[in-house]
Design goal:
The protein has four helices and 37 strands. The protein is mostly beta strands. The protein has four domains: 121 residues, Sandwich (Immunoglobulin-like); 87 residues, Immunoglobulins (Immunoglobulin-like), CATH 2.60.40.10; 98 residues, Immunoglobulins (Immunoglobulin-like, Sandwich); 84 residues, Immunoglobulins (Immunoglobulin-like), CATH 2.60.40.10. Strands 1, 3, 4, 5, 8, 9 and 10 form a seven-stranded mixed sheet that branches. Strands 19, 21, 22, 23, 26, 27 and 28 form a seven-stranded mixed sheet that branches. Strands 13, 14, 16, 17 and 18 form a five-stranded antiparallel sheet that branches. A hairpin with a 6-residue loop joins strand 6 and strand 7. The longest helix has 16 residues. The two termini are 54 Å apart. 21% of the residues are buried.
Length: 405
């Protein structure tokens, strides 16, 4: 009986030691942490709230001392974000940012209290966009991709059709749909995380299978296929290309066994299957962007195939720029025109500021964690490249040598 009571006592002690609140909040929202009722008495002489980030670095958030009546917020990460109720000890954090993620503790009269408060701050999910890659063969089908879910807090993905039915299992970034008899049927994808939810605009079947929009990188290949079997007898097939200036040229022509490629832009890279009508173009260049149409037996078909060929993004290079009057702060720049995504070693996305004429920069402070690092990623519709990591120990090497830590 004694041992059973001892075990129960140990369980109670352990639970009390690790007790706390666990909160997930959105960027720019607000939260409050209140110590155990009665822990702040009229005789309380000091209150200190502390923050421990995911790297284990501890800083003071806010400090109150009865002797001089002052409230201090020593860390720049919490200035203009923090409020303290001296009567209850309640800490309020407003306009939350990713950097406020971590564990919060309170010292009352220089004694740390057992209760801890764990806060996770995450971005709202972006409104997703559905992109498509269609193959219009004997059974027309499209691969739909739900784009917009990148970030440190991976959202759940849910696909639905116009009847409200959930398609496939959850968290499939891509699904494949086939052409049905209902052109008004549509598809949506929804991104959801702990703090927000967004649904894409619907993509209608009538738009999926009436024409095809494809994005490819320079050097890739592409194939376009009529949505119906060719009606016999087929005596001629002509694929035409309309560039962005509206100029129409023949890409390839098949006429009763003879293949003609009159335009040098398509020579040596273009083939056509006279049985299915499929055109194949390899070693794509930007000049191959435009609209493609097909004539069968000298009759132009209704289908339109839109091709956009883009250059791949280069591998970016981060350029550090020292701040003359502050050796503990550095600007990191990524001077490119594409979409730029900044991340730290914890995987958190960091907001960048625009540079002119192009690019973005972020300002980083010395945190004391030499293993912390930063990357910048370039992204367009066809490619993605990430820079080499820039480590804090290299950014602040001289300041670490010149200052006592």
């Amino acid at each position: 009986m004694f041992f059973r009571r001892s075990h129960i006592l140990w369980i109670l002690i352990i639970c009390e030691a690790v007790s706390g609140d666990y909160v997930t909040k959105a960027v720019n929202s607000e939260t409050a942490f209140t110590p155990v009722s009665g822990s702040v008495a009229p005789s309380t002489t000091s209150i200190i709230w502390k923050h421990r980030n995911n790297a284990g670095v501890v800083v003071k958030v806010i400090e109150w001392d009865r002797d001089d009546g002052s409230i201090e917020i020593p860390n720049a990460n919490f200035k203009s974000h923090t409020r303290l109720d001296k009567g209850t000890g309640e800490l309020t954090l407003k306009d939350l940012q990713l950097k406020h993620t971590g564990v919060y503790t309170i010292d009352i009269n220089s004694k740390e209290q057992r209760k801890q408060f764990s806060l996770t701050v995450i971005e709202h999910v972006n409104k997703p966009r559905i992109t498509k890659d269609c193959l219009l063969g004997d059974v027309p089908e499209c691969t739909l991709s739900c784009d917009g879910g990148d970030g440190p807090s991976e959202p759940t993905i849910t696909w639905k059709n116009s009847a409200g039915e959930t398609l496939y299992r959850q968290n499939m970034r891509t699904i494949t749909v086939t052409k049905s008899s209902d052109p008004e049927n549509f598809y949506t994808c929804t991104l959801k995380n702990a703090v927000s939810e967004e649904t894409s605009d619907p993509v209608y079947e009538r738009d999926l299978f009436d024409g095809v929009d494809v994005m490819k990188a320079v050097g890739d290949q592409v194939s376009f296929h009529p949505d119906k079997s060719l009606p016999p007898p087929v005596t001629s097939i002509i694929w035409k290309h309309i560039n962005t200036a509206g100029i129409v040229v023949k890409a390839i022509e098949w006429d009763e066994g003879e293949i003609l490629i009159p335009n040098p832009r398509f020579r040596d890279i273009t083939t056509v299957d006279e049985k299915t009508g499929q055109i194949n173009i390899t070693n794509l260049k930007v000049e191959h962007s435009g609209v493609y149409t097909i004539d069968i037996n000298s009759k132009e078909q209704q289908q339109r195939f839109t091709l956009t060929v883009m250059e791949r993004v280069p591998k970016p290079v981060i350029e550090p720029e020292k701040i003359k009057d502050n050796p503990l702060v550095v600007n990191l720049t990524c001077k490119y025109s594409e979409t730029i995504i900044w991340k730290n070693s914890a995987g958190q996305i960091l907001p960048g500021l625009a540079l002119h004429p192009k690019g973005e920069f972020i300002t980083v402070e010395k945190k004391g964690n030499l293993e912390n690092s930063y990357t910048c990623t370039l992204k367009n519709a066809v490619s993605e490249e990430t820079s080499a990591r820039v480590n804090e120990r290299d950014l602040f090497k001289k300041s670490a040598e010149g200052h006592c830590m």
